[in-house]
Amino acid sequence: MRSSVVTYIGFAIGALNAVLFNKFVPAEVYGLTRIFFSSSLIFYAFASFGTATLLNKFYPYYRDYLPLKQRDLFGIVLIVSMVGFLLVTAGTIIFEGLIHRKYQLAPLFLQYFYLLYPFAFFYMLFTLFENFSYNHYRSVFPIFLKEVTLRAVTTILIVLMVAGLFSSVQFIYAFSCLYAVIFIALIIYLRKERTLQFSFKTSSVTRRLAYRMTTFNLWIFGGSVFVAVQQNLDSILITSTNGLVGTAVLEFNTYVSNVIQVPQRSMIAIAVPILAKAWKDKDMEQIQRIYTRSSMTMLIFSILIFMLIWLNLESVYHILDLNPVYWTGRYIILFYGLGRIVELGAGVNGQIIGTSDMWRFDFVSNLVLIALSIPLNYYFIKTLGINGPGIAQLIAISVFTIIRFTFLLRRYKMQPFSLKTLYVVLLGIAGWLVCAWLVTPENHYLRVILRSAIFAGIFLLPILVFGWSQDVTESWHKGLALVRKYWQKK
To answer: How many domains does the chain divide into?
Structure first.
């Protein structure tokens, strides 16, 4: 619950940042910040060699058999990632000419390309230590740093630039240090919690598991690279073909659709260590419970958030008086949003596979995803322009999700759906039809209020009355309790 609240607060701040970027910052600068993020994810995927997944998979064995100071797995992860980062950096230097040829339409990116190195380096370190923190069952603070602090500091930088206290050049330099700030904060927190302890000396557990871990990591490395490329291919291609303004339009609308993924982020952070332990203990009932519960919870929240966004999108553009250039990419939100619903509605299937003994399938399924994504993105970007990635993403994610669902069903006889799943989808469609066709006042403020309230009532009331989701019901009661506590204090 706390991690979800923190993530939503972060997205609210991120939404404010997106609006500030939209209204006060040149689209090229906003596009540059987005391509920094996309490039860093690919940097990290290659440099870390998939060791974060290795850590999540095998750390339970170290927890069970070794005291804190003798656990060397994280030390191995750090050494491998540092070497990997040096290799990737060398690769970008070797292929500098190719990078310049491909991004001639994005001169600002080429001008400040060297700032990508500190940005990507501290992104990698923060992500590794974030996973280290998760494996000590401390997820709230790193989520707070990533979702809230990072965006709050960005807000400060934007305000300083808008106020004339920062030039755009100074803003770009400061922006490249964002992950260094939250990385330092995370290190201080882990030291305070007395969990920042690990070893570089090879332990008996490592010697016993060395072959399994090496084999696992070789497979997972390929899968993690494929995922990173697939998730960021659209912005890379758009930057190359449409420049940083195209990147800004794509990433602004993608960010709006990413709000739908908030429940997934917090649920994954909680579920991964539990799933890893359940596989270790061969507790299939626990895994099935997590699968079913995550599917229903994420389906409900994803439909609710998507419908509220799509029903009110035009009105919000009018109210905020956003730059018309971003409206050209509105269908990205539609297709990305539908893809998010498909993905989240299938629950934590990827995490179940990734923490199981069948993790090789994770590599195979990711290979299928990237094999679909590259030609689909290329084709639809060439034919439809800025809205092309949305259609490509919907097709690729749907096929990818079906493959993983089918694998878990056939291999472990597990599937998360029931008639309740159908009822939730039908409720979402019914709520959209009522609001889109019948609730159309000319005043945009009134339209947002009425559509949001009516859709939420149509969609959530039956879910709460019939108790279709334990997580939704618990969240509702916790929310009511907080409201009562607030009013009692007054």
So the answer is: 2
Question: Is it the case that residue 2 has pLDDT exceeding 70?
Answer: no
Q: Which residue has the tokens 């497979």?
A: 219
Same domain, residue pair 410 and 362: yes
- Shared-domain flag, residues 159 and 143: yes
Whether 430 and 296 share a structural domain: no
Residues 461 and 483 in one domain: yes
Contacts of 220 (CB under 8 A, 6+ apart): 50, 53, 54, 354, 359, 362, 363
Q: Which residues of 410-426 are buried (b: 16+ CB within 10 A; e: fewer)?
A: eebebbbbeebbeebee
pLDDT at 167 over 80: yes
CA 139 to chain centre: 15
User: Measured between alpha carbons, how far is residue 140 from residues 15, 136, 189, 452 in Å?
Assistant: 21, 11, 11, 29
Q: List the helix and strand counts (H, then E) for the chain.
A: 22, 0
Average of per-residue pLDDT across 286-290: 93
Whether 232 and 106 share a structural domain: yes
DSSP SS3 for 89? helix
> Can you give the residue range of the structural domain that contains 181?
2-417
Helix (H, G, I), strand (E, B) or coil at 112: coil
Q: What is the pLDDT of residue 91?
A: 93
Out of 392, 417, 442, a domain closes at 417
pLDDT value of residue 3: 61
Instruction: Name the residue type at position 145.
Output: L
Q: CA 365 → CA 350, 370, 379, distances in Å?
A: 10, 9, 22
- Tokens (6 digits) for 23: 């209204």
Please give the average per-residue pLDDT across 465-488, as a whole number. Answer: 80
Query: 422 or 322: which carries more pLDDT confidence?
Result: 422
Exposed (0-12), middle (13-18) or buried (19+): which is 483, by Cβ within 10 Å?
exposed
Token pair of 434, please?
Answer: 């009522």
412-418 contacts, C-beta under 8 A, 24 or more apart:
412/284, 412/287, 414/284, 414/287, 414/288, 414/291, 414/352, 415/291, 416/291, 416/292, 416/294, 416/295, 416/296, 416/346, 416/347, 416/349, 417/295, 418/292
**Are 322 and 453 members of one domain?**
no
Which residue among 417, 443, 467 closes a domain? 417
Question: Based on the domain organization, do 129 and 79 belong to the same domain?
Answer: yes
* 38 and 128 within one domain: yes
**Quick one: pLDDT at residue 322?**
81
Two tokens, residue 356: 């199981």
- Burial level of 401, CB count in 10 A (0-12/13-18/19+)? buried
Q: Compute the C-alpha angle 407/408/410, nearest 5°.
A: 65
Could you give the CA distance from residue 152 to residue 17 in angstroms, rounded to a whole number?
9
The terminus-to-terminus CA distance of the chain in angstroms comes to: 24
